[in-house]
TrEMBL record:
Ranges of residues in domain Alpha/beta hydrolase fold-3: 2-52
GO molecular function: hydrolase activity
Tagged with keyword Disulfide bond: no
Alphabetized Pfam families for the sequence: Abhydrolase_3
Annotated protein name in UniProt: Alpha/beta hydrolase fold domain-containing protein
Organism: Teichococcus globiformis
Keyword field contains Transcription regulation: no
The organism's place on the tree of life at top rank: Bacteria
Length: 54
């Protein structure tokens, strides 16, 4: 799945998508047996910027 991109979907749509993805993983963190206290985030190129800003 991809985040919404400009010019069709301008800011803040991509940032909202990155934030939603983090919440999507963080909510069931205990059930997935992953640590939710200190999540690791990553991205490549524009995705790296979104990962840090989301």
């Amino acid at each position: 799945m991809h985040y919404r991109r400009a010019p069709e979907k301008p800011y803040p749509a991509p940032t909202e998508d990155a934030s939603a993805a983090l919440c999507w993983v963080a909510e069931p963190a205990d059930a997935l047996e992953i640590g939710s206290a200190r999540p690791a985030i990553a991205g490549d190129s524009a995705g790296g910027n979104l990962a840090l800003s989301g």
